[in-house]
Structures are given as structure tokens and as C-alpha cells.
Amino acid sequence: MKLDRIIAVANAKTIYRNGDKCIKVFEKRYSKASVLNEALNQARIEETTLNIPKIHEVTTIDGKWAIVSDYIKGKTLEMLMAEEPEKLDEHLSLFVNLQLEVNSMRVPLLNKLKDKMNMKISQANLSATTRYDLHTRLEGMPNHNKVCHGDFNPSNIIIAEDSTPYIIDWSHVTQGNASADAATTFLQFKLVGDDDIAEKYLSLYCKKSNTARQYVQKWMPIVAAAQSVKGNEMEREFLLKWAEVVDYE
């Protein structure tokens, strides 16, 4: 298998193109269970009506685990938003519509969002009192079974050459409360300094989904604590500040 064209480098992963295939190669420290779980999650999402790259095989390359899937030729929505600032509202509208389409799906065999967040909060670098408060808040939030992407941001949307949008990177997908997914996306915009876009996004998401802004905001400390476990030191510091805020106005 030819691995000479890198198209992206992510945390502990390098993504290559080989003809019409995309090969995600994981570093050796990445566990077999995590790779197989990611492939299983994506295969389960394939069974919905969402446009996503199809998995062809899970293999090893030079002793490293790899997932081989369709290569989607096109540009990410992140690229288009940067290239066409005058179309920001149009791009954001498409972005939110796609997220709502994801949230409308049901895949009963996916892991539960609350289970994952409880585990992550337990690992967060927060005081025992704050962790207890966050666990209690999480348990008090309504139980839903909507598909939550877990990393829904414009870099994970590819607009193909025929204008079909494809949603990629299903490694964090769970089933649960869609407002947690929206809170995650909002914090990702904030994390990279896109404060204006973050606010526009949240307003649009709440309007299109008929969700109270305050309801999404209640998820933000919970989501921030869970997200703080991954990422670099600067990201953790930013997220932990959000995790320690009791309420948002």
C-alpha cells in the first residue's frame, strides 16, 4: 500500500491518500481496542442515511493499525469559510443543518454520551468538589438517544466536487443529548478564537432546533470538563476555566 501523500496530521494519527482511498494510520501507542472501536462506530453510522466515507478495511501497516475508507475529493467547510467570508451565513446555515441531520439519527448500539462524559470528568484536573458537582449536573440532565458526533466542526465537513457534503471523523460519536453536541461545537469555535462565529453558530443552532440557549449553556461546564482531558496544555487551561464556571448568563 503506497503511503506517500499525506493529506492531514492529527493527534497520534496521519492520514494519507492512495488513489480513491483514504488511509488513517495510528501511532503504535494507539491501542487496538480504540482503533477497532472507531471503525465499528463509523460502520454503524454507515447504516444511517448520512453521507459519510465508507470503510473498506482495518489493517496494519508497518506494525501500526490503519483504517482504510473512501477518499472524498473536495474542500472542507473550514476552507470555504476562510475563502468566502461573504458567504459566512450561508456556510453556517449548512453547517447547522448537517448537525441537526446527524442529531436526528438513532443508532441504538452506540456508546452512551453520559457514560463517556462521566468517565472523562473523573479524569479531569479539577477539585473533587467540582468533579462531584459536574457528575451531579450530568446525571440531572435529560436522557436522550440522539446521535452526537462529538467533534462536529467545519474541518470535519467535506464539500465534494458535486457539492455533496460528507461528514468525516466519527471517532467520538455517541448517543445522547444533542445539546451536549452543540455545546461541544460552540467551545471548539471559542477554543480557536472564533468568538463571533461561536455566537452566530449558537444562535442559529438554537433557532433551527427550537432549543433554549440557556439549555445548551447548562451543558458547557460538563462538556468543557470532559474535553479538557485531551488536547494540549493551553487547550486544557482554557477548558478548565469553563468547567469551573457555575452558570452562564
Q: What is the structure about, briefly put?
A:
The mean pLDDT is 94. α4 (113-123) packs across α8, α6 packs across α8 (213-227) and α8 crosses α9 (233-243).
What would you note in describing this structure?
The protein has nine helices and ten strands. It has helices at 32-46, 77-83, 88-103, 113-123, 128-140, 178-191, 195-209, 213-227, 233-243, and strands at residues 6-10, 13-18, 21-26, 55-61, 64-70, 74-76, 146-148, 157-160, 165-167, 174-176. The mean pLDDT is 94.
What topology emerges from the helices and strands here?
Elements: E1 6-10, E2 13-18, E3 21-26, H1 32-46, E4 55-61, E5 64-70, E6 74-76, H2 77-83, H3 88-103, H4 113-123, H5 128-140, E7 146-148, E8 157-160, E9 165-167, E10 174-176, H6 178-191, H7 195-209, H8 213-227, H9 233-243
Antiparallel strand pairs: 1-2, 2-3, 3-5, 4-5, 6-8, 7-10, 8-9
Helix pairs in contact: 3-7, 4-5, 4-8, 5-8, 6-7, 6-8, 8-9
Keywords:
5-stranded antiparallel beta sheet, globular, 249 residues, single chain, alpha+beta, 3-stranded antiparallel beta sheet
